[in-house]
Each structure stands twice: as C-alpha cells, then as structure tokens.
Amino acid sequence: MSEQETAWRSFDGLEYYAWSASPMGPPHAVIALVHGMGEHSRRYHDWARRLTQYDYAFVSMDYRGHGRSEGKKGHTPSYEALMNDVKLLTTRSRELFPGIPLVLYGHSLGGNLVLNFHFLHPEEADLLVVTSPWLKLTFELPGVIKKAGRLMRCLIPSMVQKSKLETQALSRDMEIVHTYENDPLVHDRISLNMLFHVIDRGLTAIGQAGKIRVPVLLMHGEEDRITSCEASRELAGKNTEYIRLKTWPGCYHELHNEPCRDEVFHYLSGWLDKNLPPK
User: Fold this and answer.
1) Element (H, E) at 218
2) What are the start-end ranges of the H helices in 210-279?
3) 104-113: per-residue pLDDT in tens?
4) Any residues with CB less than 8 A from the CB of 147 and at least 6 apart, and which?
5) Checking CA distances to 117, which of 78, 91, 125, 247 falls within 20 to 30 Å?
6) pLDDT for res 156
7) β-bridge mates for residue 189, sequence order
C-alpha cells in the first residue's frame, strides 16, 4: 500500500495529525476511521494494510487531545467539537478519494462518535462500521465521580483524571497489551466534561437507533470488560432492518487485535462486499 502523512487544522485552530493509505489499484471505497479513547490512529496500521489489500482506501486522524495532535489530553470543550472533528475526517476523506462510497468506521469511543455524527449528518456516510462502541461501560464509575462528578464538571469541566483503563482487557494477545502499555502516544486521561458528554451521548445513540437509514455493521466481543456488549444488543434490537449485529464469543474489546482477527476481518470484508456496489 501507499501511505501519506499530513496535517489538518481543526475549526478552532488545532493542528491534527492525519494519514491515508491507498491500494495499488483504484479504490472501491474509502474507510474513514475514528479511533478510541486514549489511543491514536496509527494503532490501526495493520487494519489499514488489510483493507488496502482488498482495494479499499483508508483515512484516519488523531482527533483533539490524542496521539500526535494538539489539544489537552483527554479533554474536549464540548461534544460538538468532537462532531466537528469527525466532519473534518469525512470531508477530507472525500477530497482525497472523490467519487467513491465512504464507510465511516468507529471503535469504542469512536463508535459513540460515529453513531451520533450519523444522526446529525445522515448524508455523510454510505455505510457505518461500529466495533465495541462506548454506549455504556461495563463497570461502575468511582464513587466520588458518580456522586459529585456532574457538579464538579460544571465548576471545573477541564479537570482531567486517570481513566484507570484495564489494559489487560483490551485483547487476549499479550503482545498487543504490552505494546499498548509502552506506546508513548497512548494516554490514560479523561476530563469530567468529556466523560459525561460521552456517557450521555451513548444513551442518546441507543434511544435514536431507530432513525438510522444506512446499513450498519455492529460488532462486539462477548467478553468485553470495558464497553457493554449488552448495550450493543440493545441498540441493534431497536433497528434490525439496518443494523447487522455480530457478537464474538470469548473476545475482548479490540476485535481488530484479537487472536481471531483474521476471522473478524473476513467477516468485515464480506459484509462490505455485500453492501457496497459490485467491484
């Protein structure tokens, strides 16, 4: 595949790191990927390589407060700022690869963003792929945050705390876990403002699932200890016409990094083939 790195400017002046990958021949569609909380877009390099081998172009960026991009780590001034970041991604993806279908792909927090972005801009993507979305968490928030967090958010919205992510719950592949733990571009911070925006919009996504009118592939590991597989089932159950739910027994949070990632990719590529125009 052919790769290109670049810098984009956000609506509020932040510089973002972005990159794209192209197949050897004409791309069949472009996959615009929104990464998860605390990570960065380069963690999807292997997924991009696989997609380009199947004649898909790939575009992603580190959105605000993540990876190589500017912005306070783990913080957003508003949920709308994140929606603007996703809009930047889709706009630039279409500029880079015009005239072909766009698939908006979100993992974890990225899944939350992709779903809510679709409700605002249903015309922006031809298909959605959502993996292990942050609709609900599988664990309780710390007591002080659960009880006083919303009040504290009003007083000090940019207050950042450790996310206390259980890194061993990312994947059953310990090499993936160790690489994540030693990645200097990964962080474990989240602000109160970001936390409660995402929690609220996860519930919004479930409530508005019936409005989706494009094909969606929703995948979740059944042993995910970070985001709730049951919440994904709840969302899919509200729109069985457009949402295809695939759960993976025994799998953890990062399906693209699980030992069965070959099978996950095969399922993904088969679904894309069925839902995109013939090659």
Assistant:
1) strand 216-221
2) 229-237, 261-275
3) 999 999 999 9
4) none
5) 247
6) 66
7) 162
How many whole angstroms from its chain centre is CA 250?
A: 21
User: Would you state the structure tokens that stand for residue 131, as one six-digit string?
Assistant: 């993996």
**Nearest by Cα to 110 from 130, 90, 125, 127:** 130
Confidence (pTM): 0.95
Q: Exposed, middle or buried, 96 (CB in 10 Å: 0-12/13-18/19+)?
A: middle
What pLDDT score does 1 carry? Answer: 78
HSE on the CB side for 95, CA within 13 Å? Answer: 7
How many CB atoms are located within 10 Å of the residue 268 CB? 25
Q: Tell me: pLDDT of 147 over 80.
A: no
What does the CA dihedral 39, 251, 46, 92 come to, rounded to 10 degrees? -60
- pLDDT at residue number 6: 98
Distance CA 55, CA 103 (A): 13
Single out the residue of 229, 269, 12 nearest to residue 131, CA to CA: 229
What is the residue type of 260? Answer: C
Q: Distance between CA atoms of 276 and 273, rounded to whole angstroms?
A: 6
Lowest-pLDDT range of 2-11, 150-159, 192-201, 208-217 = 150-159
Domains recognised in the chain with CATH numbers: 2-275 (3.40.50.1820)
Helix ranges (DSSP H) in 31-170: 45-53, 79-96, 109-120, 143-155
Residue type (1 letter), 96: L
**Tokens 């083939």 sit at which residue?**
273
- Paired tokens of 84: 């603007």
